[in-house]
C-alpha cells in the first residue's frame, strides 16, 4: 500500500506542476474592402509621421490624393491629442490603371527605415509604428511576397501586416501640411529629406511636376 500511495502522490505532483499548454488560436479578422469610386481605389499605410507619408504618396504618378488620419486601433473617433491605440496613417486614393497596389507597396518600403520598430526617424512611439493594411487576399499576397523578398535580403521588417478595418480622417490642419507649410522646421528638416531619399530610389514613379 505504501508503494502504491507513493506512486499516486508522484503522479499527482507531476500533473499539478506540469500545466497543459493551450495554444492560443488567433482568429483572423476579415478585412473590409473599400469599393472603387469614379475609377479610383484606396489603399492604407502607416509609416511614421503622416505629413511625411502624405507628401511622398502625392508625388507618385497615378495617386490622386493622400489623406492623413488614424488607423490600426480599436478606439472610436480618435483625435491628434488622443488617438489611443491607433497609428498615424494615410489613405491613398489612386488610379489602378496608372499605378498598381504592388507599386504602392514598393513605395511604402522605399520611403522608410524598414527595420525601425515603433517609429520612423525622430518620431518615436506606437503612434508612429509601421502598419501595412490589406483589404483582400490578393493584396495580402503582394505584401507577403514583398516582405519575403526583403527578408531574403537580410532585412528585419518591422511593419505589421493587418487587415483593414476603418480609417479615421485627421483634423483639417493636418491635410496637405507639407504643401501648405514648406518652410516649417519639421518639413525642412525631416519631411523633405525623407522624400528626397525616396525619390532617389524610385525616380521613375515621380510626377514630372514635382520638384523639391
From TrEMBL:
* Keyword annotations: Oxidoreductase
Q: Which reaction does it catalyse?
A: [thioredoxin]-disulfide + L-methionine + H2O = L-methionine (S)-S-oxide + [thioredoxin]-dithiol; L-methionyl-[protein] + [thioredoxin]-disulfide + H2O = L-methionyl-(S)-S-oxide-[protein] + [thioredoxin]-dithiol
Active site feature: 49
Oxidoreductase as a keyword?
Answer: yes
Give the source's domain of life in one word. Bacteria
What GO terms are given for molecular function? peptide-methionine (S)-S-oxide reductase activity
Q: What is its EC number?
A: 1.8.4.11
- Name any one Pfam family assigned in the record: PMSR
Which residues does the UniProt record annotate as the domain Peptide methionine sulphoxide reductase MsrA? 43-187
Spell out the family assignment given in the record's similarity comment: Belongs to the MsrA Met sulfoxide reductase family.
What is the annotated role of this protein in its UniProt record?
Has an important function as a repair enzyme for proteins that have been inactivated by oxidation. Catalyzes the reversible oxidation-reduction of methionine sulfoxide in proteins to methionine.
Name the record gives this protein = Peptide methionine sulfoxide reductase MsrA
Tell me the organism.
Answer: Nonlabens mediterrranea
Amino acid at each position: 500500500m505504501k508503494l502504491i500511495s507513493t506512486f499516486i502522490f508522484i503522479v499527482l505532483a507531476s500533473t499539478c506542476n506540469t500545466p497543459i499548454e493551450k495554444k492560443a488560436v488567433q482568429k483572423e479578422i476579415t478585412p473590409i474592402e473599400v469599393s472603387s469610386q469614379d475609377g479610383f481605389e484606396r489603399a492604407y499605410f502607416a509609416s511614421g509621421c503622416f505629413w511625411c507619408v502624405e507628401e511622398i504618396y502625392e508625388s507618385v504618378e497615378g495617386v490622386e490624393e493622400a489623406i492623413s488620419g488614424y488607423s490600426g486601433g480599436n478606439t472610436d473617433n480618435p483625435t491628434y491629442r488622443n488617438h489611443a491605440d491607433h497609428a498615424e496613417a494615410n489613405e491613398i486614393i489612386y488610379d489602378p490603371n496608372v499605378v498598381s497596389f504592388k507599386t504602392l507597396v514598393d513605395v511604402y518600403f522605399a520611403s522608410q527605415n524598414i527595420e525601425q520598430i515603433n517609429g520612423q526617424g525622430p518620431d518615436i512611439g506606437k503612434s508612429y509604428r509601421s502598419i501595412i493594411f490589406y483589404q483582400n487576399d490578393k493584396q495580402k499576397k503582394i505584401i507577403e511576397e514583398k516582405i519575403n523578398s526583403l527578408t531574403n535580403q537580410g532585412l528585419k521588417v518591422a511593419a505589421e501586416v493587418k487587415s483593414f478595418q476603418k480609417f479615421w480622417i485627421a483634423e483639417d490642419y493636418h491635410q496637405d501640411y507639407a504643401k501648405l507649410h514648406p518652410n516649417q522646421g519639421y518639413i525642412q528638416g525631416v519631411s523633405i529629406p525623407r522624400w528626397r531619399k525616396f525619390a532617389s530610389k524610385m525616380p521613375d514613379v515621380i510626377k514630372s511636376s514635382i520638384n523639391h
